[in-house]
């Protein structure tokens, strides 16, 4: 769902990103964007004003990210790493801005296992860290704590931080039982996080300490995505064509 809006943004392997109107029981596509990348990278949205938002999508070049102003579809810029960086394809994207600033930043996880922080206005990389030996498949960033966590095709979760000089640094690494994390998401109250696993499992951790809290076994195939609602409920989608809904540690 778009922030403060009855509209939904969906992205498919058909190279289209669709805007749906869900107001008053409607379910119609009202606009769409043709994407130029056939990769697995999800888009990211940042609200910038009333009925306006910034959209980050994988670009035409293998290592590029395109920034658009919506709903006008105006191209703001294309973020392309330096020639000697060679991070590979962007695998996951996260637009954000500090509460004290209107300057947008983009966190991008890449095929080579690195995560980069981009200054969108300056069109430059502020910092880059190597987090994983395998491609970064998903991450989430807690802007209140200036701390993030990422998962990959490997067997580790990596916690990293962002300092006042916009420099990323790895804080800790946490080994998992089985390889493959499709997505990582932190609950809106910043108390727990969950991972979507290729081993059909959803794992729950305490965000402050990374203490494992639970392993949720319901799905019969890889879990592709996890998302929290504002009321704390967790939804998980799997290759088994089922969506599960969970109530987790509501009184933490």
TrEMBL record:
Transmembrane as UniProt keyword: no
Gene3D superfamilies: YVTN repeat-like/Quinoprotein amine dehydrogenase
Disulfide bond is among the record's keywords: no
SUPFAM superfamilies: WD40 repeat-like
InterPro entries, per database record: WD40/YVTN_repeat-like_dom_sf (IPR015943), WD40_repeat_dom_sf (IPR036322), WD40_rpt (IPR001680)
Source organism, top-level taxon: Eukaryota
WD repeats: 216-252
Record protein name field: Guanine nucleotide-binding protein subunit beta-like protein 1 isoform X3
Keywords from the UniProt entry: Repeat, WD repeat
């Amino acid at each position: 769902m778009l922030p403060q809006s009855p509209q939904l943004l969906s992205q498919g392997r058909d190279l289209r990103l669709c805007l749906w109107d869900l107001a008053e029981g409607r379910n119609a596509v009202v606009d769409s964007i043709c994407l130029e990348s056939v990769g697995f990278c999800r888009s990211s949205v940042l609200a910038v004003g009333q009925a306006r938002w910034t959209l980050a999508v994988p670009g035409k070049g293998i290592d590029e990210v395109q920034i658009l102003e919506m709903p006008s579809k105006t191209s703001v810029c294309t973020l392309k790493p330096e020639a000697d960086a060679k991070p590979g394809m962007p695998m996951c994207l996260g637009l954000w801005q500090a509460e004290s600033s209107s300057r947008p930043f983009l966190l991008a996880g890449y095929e080579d296992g690195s995560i980069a922080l981009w200054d969108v206005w300056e069109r430059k990389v502020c910092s880059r860290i190597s987090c994983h030996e395998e491609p970064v498949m998903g991450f989430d960033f807690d802007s209140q704590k200036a701390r993030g966590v990422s998962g990959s095709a490997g067997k580790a979760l990596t916690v990293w931080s962002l300092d006042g000089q916009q420099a990323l640094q790895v804080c800790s690494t946490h080994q998992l039982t089985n390889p493959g994390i499709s997505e990582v998401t932190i609950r809106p109250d910043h108390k727990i996080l969950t991972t979507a696993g290729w081993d059909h499992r959803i794992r729950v951790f305490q965000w402050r300490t990374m203490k494992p809290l639970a392993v949720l076994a319901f799905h019969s195939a890889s879990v592709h995505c996890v998302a929290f609602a504002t009321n704390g409920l967790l939804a998980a989608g799997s290759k088994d064509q089922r969506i599960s809904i969970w109530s987790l540690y509501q009184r933490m």
